[in-house]
Please model this.
Amino acid sequence: MTANGFSIEVKNLTKRYQRTTAIEDVSFDVKHGEVVGFLGPNGAGKSTTMRILCGLIPATSGIARIGGLAVSTRIDEVKRLIGYMPENNPLPEDMRVREYLRFRARLKDISGKKLKNRLEEVLDLCDLNRKTSNKVIGTLSKGYRQRVGIADAIMAEPRVIIMDEPTIGLDPHQIIAIRELIESFRDKMSVIISSHVLAEVELSCDRVIIINQGHIVATGTADTLREEFIKKIKYKLKMKGGLGGMGRLLKEIDPGITWSPMGKPDAEGFLNITISTSYSEDLSEQILERIQSQSGLRLRAFTRVDPSLEDIFLSATRRSWKEILPEAIGSVEEVQP
Amino acid sequence: MKHFFSLLHHELRALLIAPSTYAAGVLFLFLMGWIYWRILLQYSIEPQEGLPASMFFQLFWLPVFFVVPLLTMKSVAEERRTGTLETLMTAPVSALEVILGKFFAAYLFYCLLWLLTLGFPWLVSITLDSSSTNGLLLDRGALLGGYSFVAVSGLLFIAVGIFSSSLTRSQFVAGMLSFCILFIIIIGMRELQEETMTWLPWFGETLEYMQIFRHLEDFSLGVIDTRPFFFYLSNSALVLGISVLVVEAKS
Model:
């Protein structure tokens, strides 16, 4: 941890491959003990940023610091501060789990009694019991392979853990297990996780960084991003009665409000309705009051739908595309029904 | 270089469980055994000039062409293809340590395979049990010279194999590339030297210094010259140095 409390500092990082720009002017910080989600579509620049942070590839310009040390000039020291799990978690298929982790520990300068103790600690933490730890890696399920990758990443108790798509290809049970494992690192190590599973990031991470087309398009907690990117609130209702005057009733609250029925009424005649407001202020009480004041309307269910991280992600990436390719977006909008 | 022995141990273990290692070992011992048998057969038909061991080492190039590619083709190429090289490079190890670990593991195994051929003259001498024949079969000078040549030239051959493997993700391409470079070094240089001697003598003489067959001759005669040592050591270091740069640039 540096004097300013940041474990990771990235400033104006740019990586170009001849004519292609993978990332441009990427800047962000990660505090000690913080779990940060790195979101972005395929080819957005997530892996490139992570690979630069690990010293695997050099940046074209800009600076990346881990624990206050510049990655470009002090890579040997930086490597001792990082635990990295690459995308698809490549592991030697023919080695036993225990044997592989012992080899990795030696490379990370852990030896003797410390190695023995730490190995048992890590196996226990990652729920790799004696039977599993003696298995050949090639015979393990995807979930256990991910645990081996994470066990390797945390072996040397690094300050920073970088995991590229740690939950990709896992079933829900395995995802929960990995999430709990990541949760146990909070406040001890700084963690950066890249993922496509947005709900996963929302549950595991303190903060989210959204990257698109090599640029950071949004950063903050899920709540602050909701405020920034989601300008409408949706409500779901289950109603029965004369819905003819519904539009007029709602316009009295918000002139920009829209509503639409969803599907057909059920056996008792109740219909699902979605209401969308034109601004982010919570209008739940006003809507309920108006509906209840109408004697012909019967309300069975009312829910405020909080925008998911997926909505934020789509909104943020769409906004960045608009900034980058306004003409292209315009033409797409024209042909959309 | 403190991780060198951990990496060497890891590489030796990887070599010992790889099927290609055993394929190389069996093919090598089978071929060399057959060659030795043919040499003895010739000796039994009519008297020959030179010792059986000298004739045996004259054919050193034959196993080199397939043993070296089989032992080295997997080393870097396979790690790059599976992505484990990337994981390895995020640990506090240098590309030099990685390359040297792979190089010495393959080199030790290469030397071990050649050492096993000592069993051929030994087995024949036990079977024949004749002191005059045994003196010819187990001539110390010829055996020591031959094995010294194999050990010293092996440095360059294995380095070429590691270099070829560092250039590509495909084991097959690495193996083919290794075979081609070894062919040029061993056979191509001799042909080129013979050609240039007639129309460009000074260049031919320079190439003479790089003649691997010439080095073998010297070693077999017990001539221990520092020049071949310098030639193989310096070129091995050069080729391994380039391999380190390739791994650093491509990781």
